[in-house]
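Protocol step 4 of 6: structure prediction from sequence.
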Amino acid sequence: MRQDLYPAGVPRLNHVAVSLPADQLDEAGRAAITDFYGECFGWTELDSETVDRTKLILAIGHWDQFLFIHAEDEPMRSPRLDHFGVSVGSLADLEATHARVARRAQDDSAIDVIDLSVDDFDVLKVHSFYVRHLLPMMVEVQYWEFP
């Protein structure tokens, strides 16, 4: 990394933007999105930024890390494995998040889950699963274990 270019630290990712049809950002659509991602991941709506059928912003852990969802006439479409990733602080957190998603998926066939897996690189084990629901991209949830 070229930290010499950024004396205060290299830029970090602070948001991901995706688009949906305006109909999915009406009151009922926003409620479905915030219900699922709120219950499963703890993401919260930044109410002051919500515009009916236009915009929904979900804070991901902190107000300056967020998912920006906006309406488009030609909304985003992506292949199944296009995703963005979030990390959790422990294997127990990963398993609890997966359990919440799996519980919801039992009652909702629209929830697409790629089950828990581990990539073992000897010095690092990456535990993860993927989920897509109501958004055009999957979310990969990871825990990095350093054995």
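Step 5 (inspection) to follow. The chain has two domains: 1-75, 77-147.
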